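To fix ideas, we close by showing one paired sequence and structure record:
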Amino acid sequence: MIYVVFDSDCGICSFLAEFIEKNKKTINFNTIPALLFDFKKYNIDSKISEITVIYFDNEKKDLFIKIKAIGYILKNMKGFYLFLGVLLSNNIISFLLNPIYDLIANNRAYISSKLKLNKCKIK
């Protein structure tokens, strides 16, 4: 089973989780809010869910965060998203883009309000 764990208090995260659910091609791919995910069951530190999206493949025991997680999520989609996912899951590209991910994540409440998404409860 593949899990994508996201912050349901974040407007951007919630919007993207809905997008993932509509566009995924893999059946055993669950998009789940961090509040509902059993971190202890899989021996994952729940603190990482406060700063990033998590891609966790329970069968392979792969855990990816930030841009690399987005890359692996996109690899489970069709067409252009698959191509983009291959690029973003590359170690060098994900390393180079992680500072941009951090910038967006640190300003997600402001960005969510400007994009008129559900307001973040995050300060």
